[in-house]
């Protein structure tokens, strides 16, 4: 623990270490700064009350200047030495009285907005604002019990997938509440709540269904009833196995026709290379480029991508007699197609961009289809021989 006059220049000159450390001011006892290994610096005051050393953070250096921090420290330390209110006790009281709604706001602002991707941010925001806040309202975050969480989970039993996602978001909020001093350590009320069973939807298009889809796509493109870019998107989704966002937001700079691959800088699993079959390459070659627009799937707004692929898909699937088939099922169909032509799960997983074998393993039952077909042919031939 060292001392120096805490000026802007002196603070900027403080080096980082493997662990955080404190530097206190030589002119104002109790006024200091905490230097983190990341390089961030936080002003604080330190004092003793009832035999205990207490610290209260004032703010981060940068947004908060040394002059303003010194002025605030002088006032707070003066109050403490004059027998006034204990700022650390006030801080603890404020933390403990934080409502679930206020905790959700802080969670979205300080954690989700900083650490999560835009799509995840939207999912978390939806869970907080549509499910968690209406249920808990202004209940104190500190007072939430396992029984309360069980009631929340049970309220949405009719939509088990959403109930489980909401439970996961609330659990993360409660873990951070412990880190932030709002709840006691190891008091997460979500830990013992059992999730509802989830049945993954595995819908794959048969050869007959794909022919129907192909006919409708060609007709929609020819008569102009659907955007040619929407039609191209559905073809590419089926022929590449990509996720919707990967094709919807695909830019030409990430397309390498010569190498037959897409070099995606970001995806659900990070940067990845998508290897293209010849049919996918030909589909890309047919897409008309729009000058000044970086996207492959061009939208109505100048320079933007097509933001709504759900509405045209509903029209197309209805015309093809494929009610209930989701856009994501095109990705499943790509995976099933690979297994039906004899490719193994590791290869399929690599094509789909899976990072874990377990994710691809749910398609394993399809690998038996060619064997079953062979068994059928053999048994039928033997049955014919038997008369």
- Whole-number average pLDDT? 84
Radius of gyration: 30 Å
Low-pLDDT regions: 338-345
Strand tally? 8
Summarize the helix and strand pattern as letters: EHEEEEHHHHHHHHHEEEHHHHHH
- Strand arrangement in the largest pleated sheet: 1-2-3-4-5
CATH class of the largest domain: Mainly Alpha
Multimeric organization: single chain
Number of domains: 3
**CATH-scheme architecture of the largest domain:** Orthogonal Bundle
Shape: elongated
Keywords: DNA integration, DNA recombination, DNA-binding
Protein name: Integrase
GO molecular function, one term: DNA binding
Domain Tyr recombinase: 200-376
Topology of this protein?
Blueprint: E1 2-4, H1 8-12, E2 21-25, E3 31-35, E4 41-49, E5 52-60, H2 66-81, H3 87-96, H4 100-115, H5 118-136, H6 146-155, H7 160-179, H8 207-223, H9 228-240, H10 244-248, E6 255-256, E7 261-264, E8 272-275, H11 278-285, H12 310-319, H13 328-340, H14 345-352, H15 357-361, H16 369-386
Parallel strand pairs: 1-2
Antiparallel strand pairs: 2-3, 3-4, 4-5, 6-7, 7-8
If you had to describe this structure to a student in words, what would you say it looks like?
- The chain is α+β, with helices and mostly antiparallel strands.
- The chain folds into three domains: 2-91, Integrase, DNA-binding domain (Double Stranded RNA Binding Domain), CATH 3.30.160; 100-179, DNA polymerase, domain 1; 207-372, hpI Integrase, Chain A (Orthogonal Bundle).
- It has 16 helices and eight strands.
- It has helices spanning 8-12, 66-81, 87-96, 100-115, 118-136, 146-155, 160-179, 207-223, 228-240, 244-248, 278-285, 310-319, 328-340, 345-352, 357-361, 369-386; strands at residues 2-4, 21-25, 31-35, 41-49, 52-60, 255-256, 261-264, 272-275.
- The chain has a five-stranded mixed β-sheet.
- The longest helix is centred in the middle third of the chain and has 20 residues, at 160-179.
- 26% of the residues are buried.
- GO terms for molecular function: DNA binding.
């Amino acid at each position: 623990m060292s001392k120096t006059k805490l000026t802007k220049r002196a603070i900027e000159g403080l080096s980082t270490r493997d662990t955080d450390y404190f530097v206190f001011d030589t002119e104002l006892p109790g006024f200091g700064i905490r230097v983190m290994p990341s390089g961030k610096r936080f002003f604080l005051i330190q004092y003793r009350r009832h035999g205990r050393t207490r610290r209260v953070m004032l703010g981060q250096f940068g947004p908060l200047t040394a002059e303003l921090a010194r002025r605030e420290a002088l006032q707070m330390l003066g109050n403490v030495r004059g027998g006034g209110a204990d700022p650390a006790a006030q801080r603890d009281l404020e933390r403990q009285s934080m409502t679930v709604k206020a905790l959700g706001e802080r969670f979205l602002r300080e954690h989700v907005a900083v650490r999560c991707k835009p799509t995840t941010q939207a999912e978390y925001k939806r869970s907080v604002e549509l499910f968690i806040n209406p249920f808990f309202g202004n209940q104190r975050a500190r007072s939430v019990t396992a029984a309360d969480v069980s009631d929340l989970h049970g309220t949405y039993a009719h939509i088990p997938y959403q109930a489980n996602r909401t439970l996961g978001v609330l659990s993360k909020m409660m873990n951070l509440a412990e880190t932030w001093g709002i709840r006691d350590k190891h008091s997460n009320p979500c830990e013992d709540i059992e999730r509802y069973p989830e049945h993954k939807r595995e819908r794959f298009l048969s050869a007959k269904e794909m022919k129907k889809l192909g006919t409708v796509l060609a007709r929609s493109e020819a008569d102009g009833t659907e955007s040619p870019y929407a039609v191209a998107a559905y073809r590419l989704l089926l022929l590449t196995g990509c996720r919707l966002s990967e094709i919807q937001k695909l830019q030409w700079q990430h397309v390498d026709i010569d190498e037959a691959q897409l070099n995606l800088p970001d995806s659900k699993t990070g940067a990845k290379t998508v290897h293209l079959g010849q049919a996918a390459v030909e589909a890309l070659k047919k897409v008309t480029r729009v000058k000044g627009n970086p996207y492959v799937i061009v939208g109505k707004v100048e320079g933007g991508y097509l933001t709504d692929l759900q509405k045209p898909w509903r029209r197309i699937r209805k015309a093809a007699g494929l009610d209930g088939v989701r856009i994501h099922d095109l990705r499943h169909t790509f995976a099933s197609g690979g297994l039906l032509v004899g490719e193994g799960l590791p290869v399929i997983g690599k094509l789909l961009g899976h990072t874990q074998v377990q994710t691809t393993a749910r398609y394993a039952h399809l690998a038996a289809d060619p064997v079953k077909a062979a068994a059928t042919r053999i048994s039928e031939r033997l049955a014919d021989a038997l008369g």
